[in-house]
Amino acid sequence: MTTLRDAAADAGVHVGAAVDADSLRTDTDYRETLAREFDAVVAENAMKWGRLATGEGGYDFADADDIVEFAERHDMYVRGHTLVWHRMYPEWLRPWSRSEAEARRLLRTHVQTVAGRYRGRVDAWDVVNEAVADDGGLRETQWLEALGPDYVAEAFEWADAVSDADLFYNDYGADGRSEKADEVYELVSDFVARGVPIDGVGLQLHVFDEQVPPADVAANVDRLTDLGLKVHVTELDVGIGAAVDDRAEQADYYRDVVSAAVDAGADTVVTWGVDDGQSWLPVASGGGENPLLFDEQFRPKPARDAVVDALSR
Ligand code: XIL
């Protein structure tokens, strides 16, 4: 049987999954499925600041290290997620009343500690995650308030100084044609024009309320690659409920959207989890059931075969 991993190798792309460190340690089926079917990983949570932090300025890299070591043993590509985000930061960062200089020092130290530690081991970093607002402009975050709008570009400079990974901007709702997709395009075009060290854009592609038309994803990938940037589909999941009615329709959508993205030049596709038993989507979306390529018993679903198909053409 052709695995996803075989099909991806033939297509010259990576196919990955978001990984949970506990499941990796404790669940043999999880480990076997991951190593057999995927050639790329990203930590679902283990590299987020709030998960790495132990007290003020301290770090515990045990979970993140386990994921990276697993990837190395199985010859997998590693996406790092994520250095700068407005969620899942450590509690000790509160309150946000620090001076601008102190806030900048804290964020720069964090970015460089984590990106520096994994230099040569993480292949691509989501340097900044979800910095664009849903209604235009930059999202009002702690970092925007403390550091001003240039913090996004600064984060790329800081990461670039210590890392040899490809540096990505990652966001949701910017996958196909939308105002937010245009906003992200403007942001990264400006970076390219100004020489900010950005290498790629991550399209999360969480699909649950409505389908993002595959042709729109292709058009977006096209214009981003025209800027000289790489494009990764970083958090793909397709919930059954509103966007698709059943497993067959889910498989069709997976096939169409993966082939559209890859044909347009996306070179990595990562699903946000391995199996339906451990997906964030049903809770997060209030619906959107069973969104992944393997069921809760790790049996391949039609969607998995559809992605093999999409990569085999
Ligand atoms: C989610 C994880 O899947 C959950 O386990 C966690 O509770 C919250 O974060 N966009 C992102 C990811 O960039 O980091 C989020 O991951 C999902 C949305």
TrEMBL record:
Q: Name the catalysed reactions.
A: Endohydrolysis of (1->4)-beta-D-xylosidic linkages in xylans
Enzyme Commission identifier(s): 3.2.1.8
Q: What is this protein called?
A: endo-1,4-beta-xylanase
According to the UniProt entry, its GO molecular function terms are: endo-1,4-beta-xylanase activity
Q: Which organism is it from?
A: Candidatus Halobonum tyrrellensis G22
User: Which InterPro entries does the entry link to?
Assistant: GH, GH10, GH10_AS, GH10_dom
Superkingdom is Archaea
Give the first-level EC class, as a single word: hydrolase
Biological process according to GO: xylan catabolic process
Query: The GH10 domain covers which part of the protein?
Result: 1-310
Question: According to its UniProt record, which protein family does this protein belong to?
Answer: Belongs to the glycosyl hydrolase 10 (cellulase F) family.
Q: Which UniProt keywords apply?
A: Carbohydrate metabolism, Glycosidase, Hydrolase, Polysaccharide degradation, Signal, Xylan degradation
